Amino acid sequence: MNFPENIWYRRFGLAAACLSPLSLLFALLSALRRLAYRCGLLKRHSFPVPVIVVGNISVGGTGKTPMTLALLARLQAAGWKPGVVSRGYGGTAGYPLLVAAGTTAAEAGDEPCLLAARSTCPVVVDPDRVRAVRYLLAQTDVNVVISDDGMQHYAMGRDIEIAVIDAQRRLGNGWLLPAGPLRESAWRLQKVDAVIVNGGRDDEAAMQLIQTEAVNLADGGKRPLAFFAGKTIHAIAAIGNPQRFFDQLRAAGLEVAEHAFADHHAFTGPELENFRGSVVLMTEKDAVKCRGIAPPDSWYVPVEAIFNARAENALASLLERLNTIRKSDG
């Protein structure tokens, strides 16, 4: 682990204790902000279609993107026309931005490009979630909106909230930022409509991220992961929890050299040239930034979310609720 993860995901110690006064101040400011929305001092905006938030209460990767992709597929199968709004971390384009076929990760951010490519659903990028939803509704015919993250964006009204938790990291030391990884206290999970645990146990609503093949960045060719057994593999990951990716590759029988980068890291050609002559495996999220600059033997490993019975029941109940939501034209 690196700082601050080596503080957040260990037993509460001296370093966290030194930061705890700032966490208490953060908690107070967050509570006042929530109170301002509850009392109407700050406005929460409503929309003429249902809004579903897929988010978390901690910083870092928990599996929101595969959860969002799975939900989009279920909505499409049920006859809905879903669209996505996303912050677009690291993007440099003007906002709001409707992601198109030629939109790059440098413009929109890596996650919006991945969501648009995998789902074929319209995706709008804008740090202002209210403006993003309005633009999405004005430019497309979607009838349900998923906000990829945004649980703490209280100005954006929502009808359903799904929180995703990482089974390995859970809630860390349980403290709010900066002494811990939490954006909101654990009580917030009691207010959401469903909690899905990425890699969780059978006695909780859990999803598992399954990866069985790799896709070549240059030509789109596919190989089962077993094809890479016995080869020298360099695994690179610029995601919230890169260790999960490395562990999954090892669970598939591969021996990998780990190369972890900061979440949303913008790879450069010279960086990737260091791996020329070797097999490189990366996440699909990283692949959207590396096409055209990665060495020939570079592959990405897509994941698919599968759910246990508890999670399936929770998602089915939420989809049924959507059919009962009626929105006014106002």
User: How large is the share of residues in beta strands?
Assistant: 15-25%
The topology string of helices and strands comes to HHEHEEHHEHEEEEEEEHEHEHEEH
Number of strands: 15
Biggest sheet, in brief?
Answer: 9 strands, mixed
Please bin the fraction of helical residues: 25-40%
Put simply, the count of helices is: 10
- Which of globular, elongated, flat, extended, rod-shaped describes the shape? globular
Low-confidence runs: none
Rg over alpha carbons: 20 Å
The chain-level mean pLDDT equals 92
Q: State the strand order across the main sheet.
A: 3-4-2-5-1-6-7-8-15
The separation of the N and C termini measures 49 Å
Helix/strand/pairing category: alpha/beta
Q: Summed up, what is this model?
A:
This protein is α/β, with parallel strands linked by helices.
Q: What attributes characterize this protein structure?
A:
330 residues; Rossmann fold; 9-stranded mixed sheet; 20% strand; globular
Provide structural commentary.
By secondary structure, the chain is of the alpha/beta class. Among the domains are: 26-80 and 143-207 and 307-324, no CATH class; 212-302, Rossmann fold, CATH 3.40.50. It is built from ten helices and 15 strands. It has helices at 5-8, 14-38, 64-77, 105-108, 110-119, 129-139, 242-251, 269-273, 284-290, 309-324; strands at residues 51-55, 82-86, 97-98, 123-125, 144-148, 160-166, 194-198, 206-210, 213-216, 222-224, 233-237, 256-260, 279-283, 298-301, 304-307. The strands form two sheets. The protein has a nine-stranded mixed beta sheet with strand order 3-4-2-5-1-6-7-8-15, sandwiched between helices. The chain has a six-stranded mixed beta sheet with strand order 10-9-14-13-11-12. Strand 11 (233-237), helix 7 and strand 12 (256-260) form a beta-alpha-beta unit. Helix 5 packs across helix 9. The longest helix is centred in the N-terminal third of the chain and has 25 residues, at 14-38. The radius of gyration is 20 Å and the shape is globular. The protein starts with a helix and ends in a 6-residue tail after the last helix. The mean pLDDT is 92.
